[in-house]
Structure formats: structure tokens, C-alpha cells
Design brief:
The protein is of the alpha/beta class. It is built from 17 helices and 12 strands. The protein is elongated, with a radius of gyration of 25 Å.
């Protein structure tokens, strides 16, 4: 147990703060509780003392819960918050997650949901403090890993993405990466993981589009022997395999609604249940998701859960198509040329200036992935240096 065992409840309705105090003090006897009747009083407590957790209502006089969250995280960035929201405040609650809150609980308060959230928030807060001393030790390792997953280019669009990655990676915030196929969404996910506090833990990837819908639950959560035809032995799921690290759910827009419901539960409770089992397994994972679909339209069509969308898209990163960053093509060609030469143990071929200009004039529907394939084809079939004629002869558009 950590030395600062204090929880602050900030709630202007005494009936609610009393119930919260009564329930949580029974569940968490090792913690001391303070109660503030509005945001301003809450902030004065926070100025004087450190709290393992702050549970705050959103709508309050003098200082709202949203402002309390912002001001506290400026003063003491490691403070863990769980927000309480009325039905009309759900959008505000989601914005609080983006500001750095751990979770929000909707009114009327589900007691079991509250207890689960508070315990998970305390676990997360303690884990963050335990891991902080490893930060300097990890920094050199991260620099090495970053090179591998560094996005290549100097376009303004790419610089914006790199700035967001630098800000979001050290946190545990969930990230939704959007963009067309082949644009580099997987690269962004790896960059976030490699710069995070979880970089020593596993990075587990799941391509939701490549797994049949009837097997996705087993893939994510595991199964027990005999739970379905072909389940000849117990198998751990990707969430369990990613424990202590990051799980990357690629093409999440293709996930079935049944699996979406289970993922939502896993995010809310930090627990998973293997298919065919009543056993619950506690997991500590950071979730990064990606999609090439418009999830807003998928929600309207009833194909994607809105509550899961809000849980996953605390931070959104849009990866532009190659057509929107053609100024990066010269650097990308140079990068792929060197990469392919290293793989083959040969000297890199050159591309003359006109060949690069020719490549910049194409419509890159397959994005970075397509460009890499084209560069490899030109290295095999083209002259040295590769010319515009080679591009015209060997790149069919």
C-alpha cells in the first residue's frame, strides 16, 4: 500500500456524497476520505494534500468538475480522476476523458460499476507511480525502438501526427487511429507503444477484419477446452497475452456487435472471460484501435456501438493518404531503397530526379504500402539510376 492513502469526494449534493463515502469506506478500509461540497473547496484540498483518487461530480457551483480536473492536472499531473455525470453531461464526461480523467460514472449510479471503476482507477494510479522511476532507464531503449517505427517525411500533416504521438504516448489514454488502407496506421500504433511506459511489455496486434466473426471472441478473450467444436485445449486470448502492454485492434469497424459488447466490458472492468468459462481474468492493457471506416456512419447504421466508440476514441489520430502528403515521396523512396538494399545485402540503387517527379504524379490509391511495392519493382526491373522511362514502363496506372 502506498503512503498517501487518501480519496477526495467532490459533490455538492450531500445525500450523494454521503452514500459514496459510506459505500467506498466499507470497500476500501485502508483509505482515508475527505469530502468537498463544491469544486473550489475540492481544489483547496488538492492544493494542500496529495490524493490517490479524486471522485468529482461535473455540474457544481463555484468551480465545475471539468475545471477542477483541468486545474488539478496542471498543478498535480499524476492525480487520478473518476467523474460523475448526469445523463445530459455524457458529452462533457467524454471530453473529461480526453482531458485526462480515468473514467466516468453515469447517474443514477450503479454501485457495482462505481466500485469496479474506483478500484481499477486506484490500481492504475499506483501502477503509474511504481513505474515512474523506470522512465529514465527506459529512455535509451525507447530511442532505439522509435527509429524502427519512425514515420518518414517532413510534410506538415506528418509533423502534426508526430506531435500528437509525443504528447499521447506517455499517457495511458486510449487512441483511435483513422485513415485509408496502407497509410501507416499500424506504424502510428507501434510508435505510440514504443514511446510509452509500457514499451517493455508486449505489443499484441489483432486484425479484426481477418478473423471470422465466430472466432473473434475466442481470439480476443481465449477459450476453454470443449467450449466449441475444435477447441481441443485451453487457449489464452489476445487481451491476456497483452497484459502489462498494449493491444492493437486493427480494423475494429469489422468487429461483430457481440464481440464489441465484450470489449466494452473488458475496458470498463479490466477483466475478460474466456469463451465457455465463468472465470474472470484481470488484465491491464492499453487499447489502441484503428479503422478505415467512418464509424459515425457505422453507428448510425447500427453496426457499431456508440458507447464503445467513445471509450476507444479518447484521442483520435487521422493518418492522411499518400496523395495528401506527396511532398514526402522523395524521402519515402530513399527510405525504402535503403531498406530493400539492407534486406538483400546489396548497395542501394539511385532514383534520378525525373523518376521522383513521375512518381509524385501518380494517384496512390494503395498509399505507402503501394509505394513500397513500386519502389521494389523499380529496383528489380529498372536501370541504375532508375529513370522516368522505367517508371513509365514498369508502373502501370
Amino acid at each position: 500500500m502506498h503512503p498517501m492513502q487518501k480519496i477526495l469526494i467532490v459533490e455538492d449534493e450531500k445525500a450523494i456524497s454521503g452514500v459514496l463515502h459510506s459505500i467506498l469506506s466499507d470497500e476500501l478500509p485502508d483509505y482515508h476520505f475527505e469530502i468537498a461540497e463544491d469544486g473550489l473547496e475540492g481544489y483547496k484540498f488538492i492544493e494542500k494534500e496529495d490524493f490517490s483518487l479524486v471522485i468529482s461530480d461535473i455540474k457544481m457551483p463555484k468551480l465545475s468538475g471539468t475545471e477542477l480536473l483541468k486545474q488539478t492536472l496542471q498543478l498535480k499531473p499524476d492525480t487520478t480522476f473518476v467523474m460523475i455525470s448526469g445523463h445530459a453531461d455524457i458529452d462533457t464526461a467524454v471530453s473529461c476523458l480526453k482531458e485526462g480523467a480515468y473514467d466516468f460514472i453515469s447517474k443514477p449510479i450503479d454501485i457495482n460499476r462505481l466500485i469496479t471503476s474506483v478500484k481499477n482507477a486506484l490500481d492504475k494510479g499506483n501502477l503509474t507511480k511504481d513505474n515512474r522511476h523506470l522512465k529514465n532507464e527506459n529512455s535509451q531503449l525507447k530511442k532505439k525502438v522509435n527509429k524502427k517505427y519512425q514515420m518518414v517525411g517532413e510534410s506538415s500533416a506528418l509533423k502534426r501526427i508526430q506531435e500528437i504521438i509525443d504528447k499521447v504516448a506517455p499517457s495511458d489514454a486510449r487512441v483511435m487511429i483513422t485513415g485509408p488502407n496502407g497509410a501507416g496506421k499500424e506504424l502510428v500504433a507501434h510508435a505510440i507503444h514504443s514511446q510509452s511506459e509500457r514499451s517493455r511489455g508486449p505489443m499484441v496486434e489483432v486484425n479484426c477484419a481477418a478473423i471470422p466473426s465466430e472466432l473473434i471472441e475466442s481470439e480476443l478473450f481465449g477459450h476453454v477446452k470443449g467450449s466449441f467444436t475444435g477447441a481441443i485445449k485451453d487457449k489464452s486470448g489476445k487481451f491476456e497475452q497483452a497484459n502489462g502492454g498494449t493491444i492493437f485492434l486493427d480494423e475494429i469497424g469489422d468487429m461483430s456487435l457481440v464481440a464489441q459488447a465484450k470489449v466494452l466490458r473488458a475496458l470498463q472492468e479490466s477483466k475478460v472471460s474466456p469463451v465457455g468459462s465463468d472465470k474472470e481474468i484481470k488484465v491491464d492493457v492499453r487499447v489502441i484501435a484503428a479503422t478505415n471506416k467512418n464509424l459515425t456512419k457505422e453507428i448510425e447504421a447500427g453496426k457499431f456501438r456508440e458507447d464503445l466508440f467513445h471509450r476507444l476514441s479518447v484521442i483520435e489520430i487521422n493518418v492522411p493518404s499518400l496523395n495528401d502528403r506527396k511532398e514526402d515521396i522523395p524521402l519515402l523512396v530513399e527510405y525504402f531503397t535503403q531498406l530493400i538494399a539492407n534486406e538483400n545485402g546489396s548497395s542501394p540503387k539511385k532514383f534520378d530526379e525525373k523518376s521522383i517527379i513521375a512518381l509524385q504524379q501518380f494517384d496512390w490509391t494503395g498509399n505507402i504500402r503501394e509505394l513500397r511495392n513500386v519502389v521494389e519493382r523499380l529496383i528489380i526491373l529498372g536501370a541504375d539510376p532508375v529513370t522516368a522511362d522505367d517508371v513509365a514502363n514498369f508502373v502501370r496506372k
